[in-house]
């Protein structure tokens, strides 16, 4: 048997070892392809491997002879790991404060305008306390206490 160094005419492009001209002479396929009969067919790594992409928040995309991992919607890649996108801290603090002031404004309306300034002050305190007690607030509180 004679081994060809290059791909002879008619040999599958994904073939790395042809024994002659024509598609029926392929003996070995490139990585990412499987020899089926005489043809090299793309392996769908995403459906064949249970963990093509190791992260729980990753989506596998099959490519010709390979695959690619992307982060799921709402996630972004950081240090080669998909992490959930989050609002900047300042925006989250403002949202918390706005919610607290809104609650106090409603309470003030219910009390017919008595103690307006006390209600607004208490709303701000409640909003800040709510943020500090949230799952992200502990990091902000730590950095505040450490002077950053």
Considering the chains and any ligands shown, give keywords for the structure.
148 residues; alpha+beta; Laminin; two-stranded antiparallel ribbon; 4 helices; 8 strands; disordered N terminus
Q: What is the averaged pLDDT score?
A: 72
**What is the count of structural domains?**
3
Helix and strand pattern? EEEEHEEEEHHH
Number of strands: 8
- Segments where pLDDT lies below 50 for 5+ residues? 1-5
Give a description of the structure:
The protein is of the alpha+beta class. It folds into 3 domains: 41 residues, no CATH class; 42 residues, Laminin (Ribbon); 60 residues, no CATH class. Helix content is 35%, strand content 24%. It contains 4 helices and 8 strands; from the N terminus they run E-E-E-E-H-E-E-E-E-H-H-H. The strands form 4 sheets. It has a two-stranded antiparallel sheet. A two-stranded antiparallel sheet has the order 3-4. A hairpin with a 2-residue loop joins strand 5 and strand 6. Helix 2 runs antiparallel to helix 3. The chain is rod-shaped, with a radius of gyration of 31 Å. The N and C termini lie far apart (74 Å). The N terminus is likely disordered.
């Amino acid at each position: 048997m004679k081994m060809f160094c290059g791909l002879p005419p008619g040999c599958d492009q994904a073939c790395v070892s042809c024994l002659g001209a024509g598609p029926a002479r392929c003996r070995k396929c490139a990585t990412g392809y499987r020899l089926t009969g005489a043809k090299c067919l793309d392996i769908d790594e995403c459906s064949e491997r249970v963990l093509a992409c190791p992260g729980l928040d990753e989506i596998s995309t099959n490519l010709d002879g390979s695959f690619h991992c992307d982060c799921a919607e709402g996630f972004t890649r950081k240090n080669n790991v998909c992490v959930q996108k989050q609002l900047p801290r300042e925006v989250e603090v403002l949202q918390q404060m706005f919610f607290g002031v809104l609650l106090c404004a409603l309470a003030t309306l219910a009390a017919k305008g008595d103690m307006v300034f006390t209600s607004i002050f208490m709303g701000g305190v409640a909003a800040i306390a709510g943020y500090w007690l949230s799952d992200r607030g502990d990091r902000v509180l730590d950095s505040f206490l450490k002077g950053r």
